Amino acid sequence: MHATHDPTAPASAVVGFDDFLAVDIRVGTILEALPFPEARKPAYRLVIDFGPVIGVKRSSVQITEHYTLEELPGRQVAAVVNFPPRQIGPMMSEVLTLGFPDADGKVVLIGPSVPVPNGGRLF
Protein backbone atom coordinates (compact mmCIF):
# COMPACT_ATOMS: atom_id res chain seq x y z
CA MET A 1 0.00 0.00 0.00
CA HIS A 2 1.35 3.44 -0.91
CA ALA A 3 0.31 6.56 0.99
CA THR A 4 -0.52 9.60 -1.08
CA HIS A 5 -0.64 13.28 -0.25
CA ASP A 6 -3.02 13.96 -3.15
CA PRO A 7 -6.46 14.96 -1.77
CA THR A 8 -8.05 14.02 -5.11
CA ALA A 9 -6.73 10.44 -5.03
CA PRO A 10 -9.35 7.71 -4.62
CA ALA A 11 -9.69 5.88 -1.31
CA SER A 12 -7.32 2.96 -0.71
CA ALA A 13 -8.44 -0.63 -1.15
CA VAL A 14 -10.86 -1.97 1.47
CA VAL A 15 -9.16 -3.64 4.46
CA GLY A 16 -10.60 -5.76 7.23
CA PHE A 17 -11.16 -4.39 10.72
CA ASP A 18 -8.44 -6.72 12.01
CA ASP A 19 -5.97 -4.96 9.68
CA PHE A 20 -6.91 -1.63 11.26
CA LEU A 21 -6.46 -3.08 14.75
CA ALA A 22 -2.97 -4.30 13.81
CA VAL A 23 -1.80 -0.68 13.48
CA ASP A 24 -1.21 0.62 17.02
CA ILE A 25 -1.82 4.40 17.03
CA ARG A 26 -1.24 6.08 20.39
CA VAL A 27 -1.23 9.61 21.76
CA GLY A 28 1.87 11.07 23.36
CA THR A 29 3.17 14.38 24.64
CA ILE A 30 6.25 15.95 23.07
CA LEU A 31 8.92 16.33 25.76
CA GLU A 32 11.66 17.76 23.53
CA ALA A 33 11.95 19.13 20.00
CA LEU A 34 15.47 19.32 18.65
CA PRO A 35 17.03 20.52 15.41
CA PHE A 36 17.99 17.83 12.91
CA PRO A 37 20.51 19.46 10.55
CA GLU A 38 21.76 16.07 9.28
CA ALA A 39 18.38 15.22 7.69
CA ARG A 40 18.20 15.41 3.89
CA LYS A 41 14.92 17.37 4.04
CA PRO A 42 14.23 20.00 6.75
CA ALA A 43 13.15 18.10 9.87
CA TYR A 44 13.09 18.05 13.66
CA ARG A 45 13.86 15.28 16.14
CA LEU A 46 11.09 14.74 18.69
CA VAL A 47 11.20 12.97 22.05
CA ILE A 48 7.63 11.86 22.86
CA ASP A 49 6.20 10.40 26.09
CA PHE A 50 3.61 7.67 25.38
CA GLY A 51 2.99 6.83 29.03
CA PRO A 52 4.16 3.98 31.25
CA VAL A 53 3.40 1.06 28.89
CA ILE A 54 4.94 2.36 25.63
CA GLY A 55 7.44 4.75 27.24
CA VAL A 56 9.47 7.56 25.70
CA LYS A 57 10.20 7.25 21.97
CA ARG A 58 12.02 9.28 19.32
CA SER A 59 10.69 10.42 15.96
CA SER A 60 12.02 12.33 12.96
CA VAL A 61 9.39 14.71 11.55
CA GLN A 62 9.29 17.02 8.54
CA ILE A 63 7.18 19.76 10.13
CA THR A 64 9.47 22.79 9.93
CA GLU A 65 7.04 24.83 7.79
CA HIS A 66 4.25 25.03 10.38
CA TYR A 67 6.01 24.58 13.74
CA THR A 68 8.94 26.04 15.65
CA LEU A 69 11.07 24.02 18.05
CA GLU A 70 9.91 26.21 20.94
CA GLU A 71 6.16 25.61 20.47
CA LEU A 72 6.27 21.80 20.22
CA PRO A 73 7.09 20.66 23.80
CA GLY A 74 3.84 19.98 25.68
CA ARG A 75 1.83 19.38 22.48
CA GLN A 76 0.06 16.03 22.16
CA VAL A 77 0.43 14.09 18.90
CA ALA A 78 -0.70 10.79 17.42
CA ALA A 79 1.85 8.22 16.25
CA VAL A 80 2.09 4.63 15.05
CA VAL A 81 4.08 2.89 17.78
CA ASN A 82 4.36 -0.63 16.35
CA PHE A 83 6.24 -0.10 13.07
CA PRO A 84 9.87 -1.26 13.15
CA PRO A 85 12.38 1.50 13.94
CA ARG A 86 13.74 3.29 10.87
CA GLN A 87 17.19 4.77 10.43
CA ILE A 88 16.90 8.44 9.38
CA GLY A 89 20.40 9.79 8.89
CA PRO A 90 22.26 9.42 12.20
CA MET A 91 19.12 8.80 14.31
CA MET A 92 16.78 5.86 14.79
CA SER A 93 13.16 6.97 14.42
CA GLU A 94 11.12 4.68 16.70
CA VAL A 95 7.57 5.87 15.92
CA LEU A 96 5.76 7.39 12.93
CA THR A 97 4.30 10.73 14.02
CA LEU A 98 1.08 11.34 12.06
CA GLY A 99 -0.17 14.37 10.18
CA PHE A 100 -2.25 15.52 7.24
CA PRO A 101 -0.99 17.52 4.24
CA ASP A 102 -2.03 21.14 3.94
CA ALA A 103 -2.92 22.62 0.52
CA ASP A 104 0.80 22.73 -0.36
CA GLY A 105 1.56 19.20 0.89
CA LYS A 106 3.27 20.38 4.10
CA VAL A 107 2.61 18.33 7.25
CA VAL A 108 0.04 19.44 9.85
CA LEU A 109 0.24 17.33 13.03
CA ILE A 110 -2.68 15.28 14.34
CA GLY A 111 -3.53 15.51 18.02
CA PRO A 112 -6.51 15.47 20.36
CA SER A 113 -8.57 18.65 20.71
CA VAL A 114 -8.52 18.36 24.52
CA PRO A 115 -5.79 16.84 26.74
CA VAL A 116 -5.92 13.04 27.14
CA PRO A 117 -3.72 10.58 29.05
CA ASN A 118 -0.48 9.64 27.28
CA GLY A 119 -0.58 6.18 25.74
CA GLY A 120 -4.27 6.18 24.85
CA ARG A 121 -4.96 4.07 21.77
CA LEU A 122 -6.90 5.38 18.78
CA PHE A 123 -10.24 3.66 18.19
Taken in chain order, the helices and strands follow as: HEEHEEEEEEE
- In DSSP terms (H or I, runs of 4 or more residues), the helix count works out at 2
CATH architecture call: Beta Barrel
Task: State the CATH superfamily name.
Answer: Nucleic acid-binding proteins
| Head-to-tail CA distance between termini | 21 Å
Largest sheet strand order:
3-2-1-4-7
CATH topology: OB fold (Dihydrolipoamide Acetyltransferase, E2P)
Which regions have little confidence, pLDDT < 50, spanning 5+ residues? none
Number of strands: 9
Instruction: Please identify the structural class as seen in this structure.
Output: mainly beta
Kindly provide the name of the CATH class.
Mainly Beta
Major sheet, described briefly? Answer: 5 strands, antiparallel
- The domain count comes to 1
Output the radius of gyration.
Answer: 15 Å
Explain what this protein looks like in three dimensions:
The chain is mainly beta and 123 residues long. The protein has one domain: OB fold (Dihydrolipoamide Acetyltransferase, E2P). Helices cover 8% and strands 34% of the residues. The chain has helices at 17-22, 51-54, and strands at residues 25-35, 44-49, 56-61, 76-80, 86-88, 91-93, 96-97, 99-101, 107-109. The strands form three sheets. The protein has a five-stranded antiparallel β-sheet with strand order 3-2-1-4-7. The chain has a two-stranded antiparallel ribbon with strand order 5-6. It is globular and about 40 Å long. The two termini are 21 Å apart. The mean pLDDT is 93.
For the structure shown, list the relevant keywords:
5-stranded antiparallel sheet; OB fold (Dihydrolipoamide Acetyltransferase, E2P); 2 helices; 123 residues; mainly beta; two-stranded antiparallel sheet
